[in-house]
């Protein structure tokens, strides 16, 4: 009877019908793979170029002269930066009206873990996705989109903080052979402002945007506390100051003529490379900026490159600690205010 029923329904699909081929996904994977290969190539090319313009013996000598105390201090400042950034994250959750903010301890742990992913995995955003997903319960039913948006805005504020720091200090401490600071700062801050305003206006614009864009805009969180948002921006200047001081501790240990004001201008500009996906985790681009900018104030190329590599080393040590935290059992989820 079963055979007869099947014969009476010629339109019925065969039992072994093949699954539809995932054709649309293949090009996407191919593009991502090509972009990753390109970024790796640019990173390698940048280091090859840098090693070709410095004396390798002088570079080795500069690395060997570093005081262990300076390196330990750099690692400690990098870790402290993560803690301050975690507090900024919690303040920003308040700014966007998250009703169930995780504890600072939990956010700090997540930030260290995210720093590990951003440093050691290609893309430099995997850790941000992890942080957003892990804190989606902070917004209740609005969850995922709001949490990811806050993490994204936090990165934007980080970029704004370094641009503000560099521009302010450069205005107070002009450097004769360094130019373009105000121009780049103005462009970057304008882009950051437009991004934040666009997100804040998302819900109002959702009704006039088509399809997916309208639904995405409707899911974006609005700023509930401007005071908390301004505080988060101020904390961003603080985190970038810690990054600059970390770089200064290292380079001043190798060249005592570098003053802290020089580093408060140069290191944030060099650190901006990590925000643009032209290389893996900003490596190579950051070192090139170090060499170019510090050379402009009389630091030798081997010393500038050595300081940049040591700064990268301090970040790798702290990121490795985040990797260990990711393996350790997580404590209970604390979402108390």
Q: Can you tell me about this structure?
A:
This protein is mainly alpha-helical. The chain has one domain (48-327). It is 71% helix and 0% strand. The protein has helices spanning 2-7, 25-53, 56-65, 68-95, 104-120, 126-134, 143-172, 181-200, 202-205, 211-218, 226-254, 260-271, 285-295, 301-327. The protein is globular, with a radius of gyration of 24 Å. The model is unreliable at 1-27 and 333-337 (pLDDT under 50).
Structural class from helices and strands?
Answer: mainly alpha
Rg from alpha-carbon coordinates: 24 Å
Average pLDDT number: 83
**What level of helicity do the residues show?**
over 70%
| Main sheet attributes: strand count, strand direction, barrel closure | none
State the low-pLDDT regions, or none.
Answer: 1-27, 333-337
Q: Number of helix segments? A: 14
Shape: globular
Strand count:
0
Strand fraction equals: under 5%
| H/E element order | HHHHHHHHHHHHHH
Taken together, the total number of domains comes to 1
Terminus-to-terminus distance:
66 Å
Give me some keywords for this one.
14 helices, 337 residues, mainly alpha
What can be said about this structure in brief?
This protein has 337 residues and is mostly helical. It is built from 14 helices and no strands.
Strand and helix layout:
Blueprint: H1 2-7, H2 25-53, H3 56-65, H4 68-95, H5 104-120, H6 126-134, H7 143-172, H8 181-200, H9 202-205, H10 211-218, H11 226-254, H12 260-271, H13 285-295, H14 301-327
